[in-house]
Amino acid sequence: MAGLSRRRFIAGVTGLAVGLGVTTDALGRALASVPRAREVRTTLLETIKFSSRPVRGSYHTLVKGAGEEVITRLDVLGRSANPKRVTTRRSLFYLAHLSDIHLIDAQTPSRMEPMVGLAKTTFSDAFRPQELMSTYVLASMMDAVREASISQVTGAPLAAVVNTGDSADMMNDVETSWYISVLDGGSITPNSGTPGVYEGVQVWADAPYAYHPDDPAQDPYGEYGFPQLPGLLTAAVSQEVSSLGLPVPWYAVYGNHDSTFMGTFGVQSQLRSWAVGSRKAATWEALGGTSLAGLASEPSAFQRFANSLRTNLGLVPGIHSVAPDSRRRLLERTDFMQAHLDSPAFPGPVGHGFTPENVSTGRTYWKADPAPYIRLLGLDTCNETVGADGGVPEEQFEWVKAELDAARNEGVLCVILSHHNSLTLENDAQPVFGGPRIVHAEEFIAALLERPNCIAWMNGHTHINTINAHSSVDGSTGFWEITSASVIDYPQQQQLIEIVDNRDGTISIFVTALDHASDAEWVDGDYSTRGLASLSREFSANDWVQNPPMRWGSPLDRNTELLLPAPFDMSRISDSTVEATMMTARARLMKAGVEA
């Protein structure tokens, strides 16, 4: 198949230069050159492993390890792969996959850290010792994505980024604005309340379940071997985090933490007032006896008033006074979509998948075509009734099937995006007065298998690198389900994904695990942006309950080549169309200051 003619190349350069606001000459020279391969610190080059022995008690540091080779998986293809595909293949689309960012405002009164105190040594998502450093990790992940903007497999330019949910941890305004600012590029100071001052459980003596870096001697983290780090909390809330942002368009879907409180239940008015107020609970007794009492048992108006009065007057042990902050308000469902629509036009797209129609109608799913032959279908699998796991409402299910059928007729490959994966798509909760039928994993997967132009389903939720093969009974069709680990929990990895046409009737999807750009080994006393990101990874590796190495997944879940049958004659996608897509992607990288 013929590629771009000289005339179409010149016309394309001119159009891109005008659209992106760059000079035609500079863009033309850049696009006429061959992308330069460079060494990128993906897990193909090096990995991050535990130190051979604990350094204090049971506490391990992290060190560099050898890179991991790509493992070829034939589960869906069902036969041997053509060894000549390496010389004939062409890249169709190269993107990055983010999920479970969990950007955390660690000082908001609505955080329920005392819940972890119900079992003194339990390490749960109610409190993490690394949570104050989540913005630093995300900024470092942006650096890693930018560094990996040229594929190490084919040399193709990065064309898009997808984010499969749980971007904000407590569905509040400040967390959502921070996350969007870091992805778009900008500077933030990750602090709410009093500027430059940490107010929270990590300095309060009546919160012994938390890590107290100034003096951990009396908490379970100190007993485990976590270090004494005076000044860490002040450094984390005082310095500016500057992010260059993503250099390419990015797309987002809802996660349960973006949609429900603590990712589990709906929000009542009392909780909304509490979130922006000046009282924060340090103990379970204070949290359960006053703040949560109204949520659990719906007491009388007088009792709610009495609880509020006692709390605000400081008459309840375990309640602390903190600076109120209106930015901690809990978002309504449409607020989350509107925040994405208010995002800057570059890197785009406007709304990041969401449209003004989504906001006006309340519909929370969307479609987008980042290339003429690639369609993204962004779903909302969150169950607002109760529970962290999800399902697909019947209206969305019918929409997905119709969109896949239409795309197949157009010769378009489809990628499904959702927060929940096939293991967690089983939430049956319904409102008291009933709701739409909820489709679960078995029925959803069966529908996708009937539509072979669905080549991948990308998701998150479990915080574990996982890749599952789904094939029809006769083996004629199939797709790959790709689940990413998270930014907040070890190994704090995300993914690079490349879709490749092997020109032999098969498609390969290359998956590469990506560490954020901070050093493997934290240097004592380094409280810089990169230093705090490195320390966060080290802290997350020492989660003694959740078994952090399990979250790596097996070697079959990390650096892989995933083969599947092509769903139609791939010559329908012309070389000239592919080259035009690559040219646009390289121009965007140049606009963003990334060498392409």
In short:
The protein has 596 residues and is an alpha/beta fold. It has one domain (46-200, 231-266, 332-565): Metallo-dependent phosphatases (Purple Acid Phosphatase, chain A, domain 2, 4-Layer Sandwich). The chain contains 18 helices and 21 strands.
List keywords for this structure.
single chain; 596 residues; alpha/beta; six-stranded mixed sheet; 21 strands
Walk me through the structure.
There is one protein chain. This protein is of the alpha/beta class. It has one domain (46-200, 231-266, 332-565): Metallo-dependent phosphatases (Purple Acid Phosphatase, chain A, domain 2), CATH 3.60.21. Helix content is 29%, strand content 17%. The protein has helices at residues 6-20, 24-32, 85-88, 134-147, 173-184, 220-224, 232-238, 256-259, 269-275, 284-291, 293-297, 301-312, 333-341, 356-361, 394-410, 441-449, 529-541, 575-591, and strands spanning 46-50, 62-66, 71-73, 90-98, 160-163, 186-188, 241-243, 250-252, 279-281, 319-321, 366-371, 374-378, 392-393, 413-417, 438-439, 454-459, 466-471, 478-483, 493-501, 506-515, 560-565. The strands form six sheets. It has a seven-stranded mixed beta sheet. Strand 11 (366-371) and strand 12 form a beta hairpin. Helix 1 (6-20) crosses helix 2 (24-32) and helix 4 (134-147) runs parallel beside helix 5. The protein is globular, with a radius of gyration of 24 Å.
